[in-house]
Design goal:
By secondary structure, this protein is mostly beta strands. The chain has 5 helices and 40 strands. It has a 22-stranded antiparallel beta barrel. Strands 1-6-7-4-5 form a 5-stranded mixed β-sheet, with no helix packed on it. A hairpin with a 5-residue loop joins strand 31 and strand 32.
Length: 872
């Protein structure tokens, strides 16, 4: 549909709604409150991340849980309708939020104020272990209060609040909610039920569960050898169960809960050509003037910049993957994708225990004490789909073996991920004193994480039989039966521990104060953290590669990584008019590297890459500024925020080599700058109808990137050997260095502009209409990698031995997103229910996400969803 037609349709819809709104108002003089609000502030929750009632800025967002009943079940997609928030989607089972261009470890995700323990920050195909369909509300907190939870989140903290631990007694001894929904595009069937029972006057029990199942979602089209109307391997199954019990008194509560979650979902776009691939990224003897570092074979995460090879050769996949065409809309996965049957899947299980309590006014000077403890055990594996890949020149005997081997491995896990975490918090809130209100707290947490791949089993063999079922032999005497053995697993020891077993220990102290004076509010906060990441090494394995006192063999540095961080922030709020609030926030944030950024070493095929950590990473720091304005009048309301983040030692994944569509990436540090603008303007057409215009934009730049270390630069000179004879010797003058260019940051979200129209037709019926134009993202990240010149290249001389190969991020097309919905709300005695009909992407646009690692894979097409929500 062309742009003029879309604009004409939008104008007609606005005009129709406005005209009809006026007629309804004339017929009914009783104003009806608006059903859908852009922001809902809920007070009195002990597990909220917003500590003060009067500290809300223009950029703070609180989304009522009812809004998620018609949104995606994955967190990133569910929040992507909010200002400044985009999603990093990966099929139907996973999506994580991107806030103001930041993601992963820079976005702290909480469950009821305590860390969510999972592996979602590691990879986009790993689901966030928090459920929006069970949420009471989701908060996006920015600015000074973020230091209550992290030193590293200037972009925002996301807190998913639910009712698993009751904080008050239910009315009439029982209350609950039930919801169910169906959709067209993915054939999703989802239902959740939550019940809170009262036992006596002080004991409340909470039980809730969620069941969700969806098939591969429909798209306008995707070309995978043939044109399909669905995207393979985007199916999903989720099961969640929670049980909690709480003692509730006049001065507080103390409760405990247990939650168990299982997910089973597909991994779209997997390339089987890369299954058996490996890169020789390090060279144990790169510098001939230094001892050889053979310990890297056992623990490759100990690699430093000086160990990186300048001659990567190839990925050793045994396939012709490098000859695949470039990623495009006609080749979205960059390879010939086999969708004849289901692809690889992730099986995830997460178990969590929570203890949480609040004691109000326990003694003089203390307003309340808040305590929380959480234990979580997260695990997932990625299972092989049994599909075989071979090239056209593969011998027939080899083809038969590959088919046998792949069928034998179908359903076997080819990688394992785990994270066991413990989190404890104590907050002491002092009583308000002459306008001063605040708290002091301590936090201690540990997370034991790992990622492993299996080794080949030498006993996984079977006797070969011919077509008649007779045993084949290798000799004429028929004494040695022919065997075929399964090579499933990683042959090299260095490839079997992508993330070495580690324990990330963090201790933090934090404080937040708010002072009110006339129409001014001042906030100040600070957080100090100490981190250590001990690793238990297998000394016997190290000694196999590095025998004690072996000549010309380096000894590894096995010391524990230790670091400290200090962040501080201040906010000024000025209510210079009853309808206006101006806010300014300035902060200095320091972020400590994660174990993945420090130690990961190996395959990451979800992003078509091999990724390598950097044990020499320093702490990241940023200076951040935000200016915001809120206005709330009788008919007009508005909010706008402008921000800038300037980073030093910004940690990012840098491409250091490319072969076809396979990338080799390593975590490096540079300086970075992000800035943006977000806002909305609302007009109350009449008491029942409101129109809002909104938009956001963010820009990101990387500069002062580290130089690339090349091979040593040498020169020959006349010398005298040990016998006194003249000789020609070689000495090292330094290393060949290549300067990386300044550039745009990769995968920065595109600008958006749109409107929404909310209508309350009478006390039962309401509707909504929204249109968003997502602009083309043409500010792409252009970089290069280096490759060693061939030996016969005449320009290949010492100091000039590297070729520079450009890498360009592709631009992403813009699109038009039109959504509409209608709902019927009714009170019937103690029953309160809502029926909803929601249609998304009505124009059936081909939506490609620039923030995704699969930018040529279309997102869901036109979708219609029906649902029912009941509260009692």
């Amino acid at each position: 549909m062309s742009h003029p037609k879309i604009l004409f349709l939008s104008v007609c819809l606005i005009g129709f709604h406005a005209a009809y709104a006026e007629s309804v108002t004339n017929q009914n003089n009783n104003p009806i409150r608006e059903q859908t609000l852009p922001e809902v502030i809920v007070r009195g929750k002990s597990n909220t991340a917003l500590p003060f009632k009067r500290g809300h800025k223009a950029s703070d967002v609180v989304v009522n849980g009812a809004a998620f009943k018609t949104r995606s079940a994955t967190l990133g997609n569910a929040l992507s309708e909010e200002l400044g928030i985009h999603s990093n989607p990966f099929g139907g089972g996973a999506s994580a939020p991107i806030i103001r261009g930041q993601e992963g470890a820079r976005i702290k995700i909480l469950q009821n104020g305590s860390d969510v323990v999972d592996m979602s920050a590691m990879s986009p195909d790993h689901a966030v272990a928090a459920d929006t369909l069970l949420a009471q509300q989701v908060e996006v907190v920015r600015g000074t209060p973020t230091l209550l939870y992290s030193t590293a989140s200037p972009a925002g903290v996301v807190n998913v609040v639910d009712k698993r631990i009751p904080t008050q007694m239910p009315k009439n001894k029982i209350e609950g909610e039930w919801a169910a929904r169906l959709d067209y595009a993915s054939k999703e069937k989802a239902t959740n039920l939550g019940l809170t029972f009262g036992l006596g006057n002080h004991v409340a029990i909470r039980a809730e569960g969620l069941v969700r199942q969806s098939d591969n979602y429909r798209v306008p089209e995707v070309k995978l050898g043939e044109t399909l109307k669905y995207l393979p391997d985007t199916h999903n199954k989720s099961r969640v169960g929670t049980l909690g019990i709480s003692w509730v008194g006049d001065k507080g509560h103390l409760g405990v809960s247990y939650s168990r979650r299982r997910d089973h979902y597909g991994i779209p776009g997997h390339n089987h050509q890369l299954d058996n691939g490996s890169f020789h990224v390090f060279n144990t003897a790169k510098d001939p003037w230094q001892p050889e570092r053979k310990y890297l074979y056992a623990y490759p995460h100990l690699m430093t910049d000086m160990d990186i090879s300048n001659d990567f050769h190839d990925a050793h996949t045994g396939t012709s993957h490098a000859q695949n065409g470039k990623h495009s809309h006609d080749n979205p996965y960059g390879h010939q994708h086999d969708h004849s049957s289901q692809g690889p899947v992730i099986d995830m299980i997460s178990k969590r225990y929570d203890v949480r309590g609040e004691w109000r006014q326990p003694f003089k000077g203390v307003d309340k004490l808040k305590m929380s403890l959480a234990w979580a055990d997260y695990y997932h594996d990625e299972k092989d789909d049994g599909k075989a890949h071979f090239d056209h020149n593969t011998p027939q005997s080899r083809i038969e073996h590959i088919k046998w081997e792949r069928e034998r491995n179908k359903g076997r896990p080819n990688s394992f991920f785990g994270n066991k975490g413990f989190n404890s918090r104590l907050e002491v809130h002092h009583q308000p004193f002459k306008g001063l209100n605040g708290l002091l707290g301590v936090q201690y947490q540990t997370q034991k994480s790992y990622a492993t791949r299996p080794a080949p089993n030498p006993n996984d063999c079977e006797v070969v039989r011919n077509e008649n079922g007779n045993i084949e032999y290798t000799d004429d005497k028929k004494q040695k039966p022919r065997q075929r053995c399964n090579s499933f697993g990683e042959k090299e020891v260095s490839q079997r521990r992508p993330l070495v077993h580690n324990t990330n220990k963090q201790f933090g102290v934090f404080a937040l104060e708010q002072f009110k004076w006339r129409n001014w509010t001042f906030e100040g906060a600070a957080r100090w953290e100490k981190q250590s990441i001990p690793i238990q090494y297998d000394m016997a394995a190290l000694e196999r590669y590095t025998p004690p006192k072996a000549p010309d063999t380096a000894v590894p540095d096995l010391s524990t990584y230790r670091q400290k961080a200090l962040s501080y922030s201040g906010t000024v709020l000025w209510d210079f008019h009853p309808d206006y609030r101006l806010s300014f926030t300035a902060s200095h944030n320091e972020r400590l590297p994660t174990p993945v950024e420090l130690y990961y070493h190996g395959k990451h095929l979800a992003t078509n890459s091999f990724e390598y950590g950097n044990r020499d990473l320093r702490k990241e720091s940023s200076n951040n500024y935000e200016l915001g304005l809120r206005y709330a009048g009788e008919r007009w309301d508005a909010k706008i925020s402008a921000y800038q983040n300037r980073f030093k030692n910004y940690i990012h994944n840098e491409t250091i080599y490319r072969e076809g569509n396979l990338y080799m990436r390593r975590y490096l540090q540079s300086q970075a700058r992000f800035h943006g603008l977000e806002g909305e303007l609302g007009f109350q057409i009449n008491p029942n109808h409101k129109i809002t215009v909104f938009g956001d934009v963010v820009r990101g730049k990387l500069f002062r990137l580290p130089d690339i270390y090349g091979p040593p630069i040498t020169e020959e000179y006349e010398c005298v050997d040990e016998w006194g004879d003249e000789d020609i010797c070689t000495r090292m003058l330094g290393y060949e260095m290549v300067k990386r260019p300044d550039r745009n940051a990769a995968r920065v979200p595109p600008a958006r502009l749109g409107f929404r129209l909310n209508n309350q037709w009478n006390e039962n019926w309401s509707s909504n209409l929204s249109y968003t134009h997502v602009f083309k993202q043409k500010r792409t990240s252009d970089s290069f990698y280096v490759k060693k010149k061939s030996e016969d290249d005449p320009t290949n001389v010492s100091g000039n031995s590297l070729d520079i190969i450009p890498i360009q991020e592709d631009a992403t097309k813009g699109y038009h997103l039109l959504n509409a919905g209608v709902s019927y709300h009714k009170h019937a005695g103690k029953l309160d229910y809502t029926l909803t009909l929601q249609a998304n992407n009505l124009l059936n646009q081909k939506i490609y996400s620039h923030t995704s690692y699969l930018p040529y894979v279309p997102q869901m097409g036109r979708n219609v969803q029906i649902g029912v929500n009941v509260n009692f």
